[in-house]
Each structure stands twice: as structure tokens, then as C-alpha cells.
């Protein structure tokens, strides 16, 4: 995740608004039993192929996952899920066509945070392991914000391993792009109207001027590798707290088929793996054209207010956003042709409520 630059207070105005042991429960008992606290958690391990299922067995038998107290690990083959609201694991795997990403699944009906499961175990998990939850109790957002995670929301985090730390900040952009492309692909496959989900820099997803999703990427460096944990929250079938994909589809065409979480996440990994390969081999520059066609900011004019030397006066500068710099921040140009890099001030919930302008040589 891009580190936040701490600087003096400035103000920003946009000239454009964007818009322990498993008892013999039946499956309904497993998902329907009363959970008294967030620690009363069930984690189901499953794989697409025999190889991933063997990995799942090792994780369970070795009991090395850092999960906290009261968490029960169980193989998917040991439990049959019948709850209508449960994530349909078989449907997901049937739609998944990747070689690496998303093939080992950790699933929970109710979980504190998918991101915590991945980030706390990243170096011990196979590349591309994904954790999915139906409901999150303490979903994480940027700057320690809490992401509301009701039923119907697609909630997942997955593991990535990278060696070049210079490109780690860009991985969140690849994740955002893969999700917008996945939504288009699912709409096309299902014959529904296309949903024009756009990217708000750096890691939010918007539809019709309303936020419908967000991305969180964190990383740690260990044994000469960056272990990246990427988390996604997407409003697929939950109209609260904002709106969701299916609600918008119904407005466009009441007869439209609803999108399923399983289809969206499978399409995401199918897209992400391809984009990630391009990114790894050619750099983010190879994806910039597609990214800029998907984000909200090309040509956006903003006013950056910076304190002058005496700290009592403000100097206003109008900047037009051109794209991204090589370090992953916003590239802007002033009206007099000066190129600059725009950094968040580290204090605002919305990146576009506080930017610091740095001249570029």
C-alpha cells in the first residue's frame, strides 16, 4: 500500500465532483449454530484440485495457522453446507480457470477479518491462497478505517509474493483494474447490462458516483520477498450502506439476472492472473492505457492550497491530473506547465481532501 506522506496541513478543493474437534453437526447446524463472540469462528479449507486439497490437509493437520482462540479448522470435504446464504464453493471452483491464484480457499461464514487471516499467515500460505467470508465483523479499510461488511457483500483477501519492492505500490491498481474487468466479463457472460464500475484513486470502486467497493493492500518483507495481502470488499447484493451492483442492474432492467458473488470472484482471479503476469513481465506501463480508461481522474482539475512561508497565508495552485508517476502517486501539471507529484497528506479519510504538491525535476 502506498505509504502516506506526513506534511504540513493543506486544504484541497476539487473543481469536479465524483459522482477443537468438530462434532457431528449437520451442515445447517454448522452454519446455523449460535456464535457468542467473534472468536467462535469456523474456517473451512478447500482446494480446486488434489494438489490444493493436499495443501489444505497439511494446514489443518499441522495446525500452524495463526487464527486466534476459538477458531476451528475443518476440511470442506468433512462438512456439507446447506445454508442458502453460504458461499457456494463448488460453483466458485467450477468458474475458476487460473493456474495459481484462488485455487486454495479458506472460507468462513462469519469472520473478524479476511485480511487478518491472510496477512498473519502470508509467508506460510501457498501463493494465491484466498480467504472468503460471508460476513466480516471487523473488516479493515485504509488508515485503520472499518469497512462495513453485511451479507451480500463479496469479502475476500488473498496472498501475493513479490521480489521487487519498487513496484509493490502498484499492485493495488492491478487489483482494482482486475475487478472492474471481472464485472464487465460477468455481465457479458450473463447477458445483463454492462456496469460501468470506475476506479477512484488510489483504491476505491465507484458506480454512478457512489462507492461500491474498496481495495486494501499491505505488505511485509521477509526472506528477500515482499508478502502482499490484498483485500477486496465489493457490494454485490447488499444495498446498504450505499448501493450494490444488483440494485443498479434492477434499475436498468428489472428482468436482469442477479450477479453472484461466486461468479464475480472467479472472474476476478481469472482476470487478475493475466494482468499480474503482464505487470510482472512488462511493468505497470503496459497496463496504464486500460487503467486510465477505467479511472475517474484524467483531466481532473484540482486546487491545492499550501501554506506560505509565514504560515498565515495560503498559496493556491490549479493542477490538472495527467496520470500516475513511476512511484504510483498522482502526476499533475500546473497551468504554467510545471510537472508535479501529488501526495496525500496522511490526515484525510478521502485522499482528495488533502494533497501535497512536490515539484518534479
UniProtKB/TrEMBL annotation:
- Write down the superkingdom of origin: Eukaryota
InterPro entries in alphabetical order: aa-tRNA-synth_II/BPL/LPL, Biotin_CoA_COase_ligase, BPL_C, BPL_LPL_catalytic
Residues spanning the signal sequence: none
Q: Does the keyword Hydrolase apply?
A: no
Q: List each copy of the BPL/LPL catalytic domain by range.
A: 90-280
- Asked whether the UniProt record includes Ligase among its keywords, one would answer yes
Q: Which Gene3D superfamilies match?
A: Bira Bifunctional Protein, Domain 2
GO cellular component terms given for this protein: cytoplasm
Name it: Biotin--protein ligase 2 isoform X1
Organism, as annotated: Nicotiana sylvestris
Amino acid at each position: 500500500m502506498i505509504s502516506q506522506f506526513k506534511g504540513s496541513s493543506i486544504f484541497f478543493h476539487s473543481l469536479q465532483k465524483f459522482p477443537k474437534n468438530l462434532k457431528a453437526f449437520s451442515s445447517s447446524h454448522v452454519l446455523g449454530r449460535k456464535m457468542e463472540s467473534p472468536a467462535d469462528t469456523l474456517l473451512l479449507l478447500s482446494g480446486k484440485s488434489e494438489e490444493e486439497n493436499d495443501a489444505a490437509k497439511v494446514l489443518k493437520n499441522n495446525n500452524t495457522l495463526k487464527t486466534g482462540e476459538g477458531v476451528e479448522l475443518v476440511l470442506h470435504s468433512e462438512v456439507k453446507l446447506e445454508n442458502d446464504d453460504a458461499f457456494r464453493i463448488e460453483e466458485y471452483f467450477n468458474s475458476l480457470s487460473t493456474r495459481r491464484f484462488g485455487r486454495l480457499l479458506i472460507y468462513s461464514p462469519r469472520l473478524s477479518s479476511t485480511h487478518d487471516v491472510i496477512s498473519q499467515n502470508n509467508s506460510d500460505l501457498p501463493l494465491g491462497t484466498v480467504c472468503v467470508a460471508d460476513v466480516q465483523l471487523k473488516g479493515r479499510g485504509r488508515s485503520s478505517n472499518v469497512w462495513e461488511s453485511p451479507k451480500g457483500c463479496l469479502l475476500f483477501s488473498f496472498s501475493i509474493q513479490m521480489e521487487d519492492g519498487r513496484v509493490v505500490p502498484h499492485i493495488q491498481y492491478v487489483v482494482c483494474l482486475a475487478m472492474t474487468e471481472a464485472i464487465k466479463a460477468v455481465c457479458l457472460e450473463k447477458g445483463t447490462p454492462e456496469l460501468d464500475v470506475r476506479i477512484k484513486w488510489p483504491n476505491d470502486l465507484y458506480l454512478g458516483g457512489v462507492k461500491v467497493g474498496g481495495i486494501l493492500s499491505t505488505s511485509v518483507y521477509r526472506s528477500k520477498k515482499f508478502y502482499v495481502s490484498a483485500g477486496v470488499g465489493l457490494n454485490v447484493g447488499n444495498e446498504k450502506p450505499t448501493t450494490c451492483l444488483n440494485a443498479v442492474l434492477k434499475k436498468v432492467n428489472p428482468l436482469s439476472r442477479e450477479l453472484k458473488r461466486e461468479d464475480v470472484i472467479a472472474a476476478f482471479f481469472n482476470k487478475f492472473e493475466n494482468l499480474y503476469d503482464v505487470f510482472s513481465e512488462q511493468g505497470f506501463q503496459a497496463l496504464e492505457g486500460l487503467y486510465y480508461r477505467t479511472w475517474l481522474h484524467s483531466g481532473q482539475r484540482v486546487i491545492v492550497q499550501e501554506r506560505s512561508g509565514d504560515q498565515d497565508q495560503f498559496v493556491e495552485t490549479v493542477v490538472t491530473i495527467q496520470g500516475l508517476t513511476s512511484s504510483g502517486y498522482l502526476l499533475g501539471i500546473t497551468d504554467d506547465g510545471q510537472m508535479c507529484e501529488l501526495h496525500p497528506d496522511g490526515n484525510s479519510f478521502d485522499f482528495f481532501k488533502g494533497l501535497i504538491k512536490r515539484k518534479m525535476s
